[in-house]
Structure formats: C-alpha cells, structure tokens
User: Which sequence fits this backbone?
C-alpha cells in the first residue's frame, strides 16, 4: 500500500522553511515542511539531525509553533502529528 492510503486526511503540498525547537539547551534543527494538514505534516531534515520524539515545530510564515509528535521516520523525512499550538518561544530569534 502507498503511504497516502494510510492517511485519513489529504496533506497539501507545501515548501515552508521551519525550525524544530527541542527545548534541550534551546536547541534548533532547521527543516522543510513538505506537506501538511491541520493534523500533521511531513518534514525533510538533514539525515544526521537528532530529532526527539516530541518537539515544537516553528513555521515562521504561519507565525505558529506546533506541538509535534513523531509518527514515523524514514531516512531524511519525518512524519509528525500535531497536538496543539503554542506561542513562539521567547528564546527563538527566527
């Protein structure tokens, strides 16, 4: 089965720059949002990036920090589910 057949919502293709905010000593990982919908997204990250199972995903063009929970990982891609939103952390300069 194709990946799309497992989804209950269609994800809109986008190319948005974003930052994974881990909260560990204010650590940041740059990424690209490849597609998303209200419930989640697919992210492209560096293959050697260390991304925890839960983090804030800050998308500057949306002005939103999404609480993200990792659902799957494949090479340089991560699928996340959104568990709410938060204001942009004050320590993030982007």
Assistant:
């Amino acid at each position: 089965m194709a990946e799309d057949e497992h989804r209950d919502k269609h994800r809109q293709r986008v190319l948005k720059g974003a930052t994974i905010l881990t909260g560990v000593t204010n650590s940041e990982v740059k990424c690209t949002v490849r597609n998303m919908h209200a419930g989640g997204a697919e992210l492209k990250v560096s293959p050697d990036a260390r991304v925890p199972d839960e983090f804030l995903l800050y998308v500057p063009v949306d002005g939103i920090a999404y609480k993200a929970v990792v659902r799957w990982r494949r090479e340089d891609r991560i699928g996340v589910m959104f568990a709410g939103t938060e204001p942009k952390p004050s320590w993030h300069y982007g």
Observations:
- Residues 1-7 have pLDDT under 50 and may be disordered.
- Residues 66 and 85 are 4 Å apart (CA to CA).
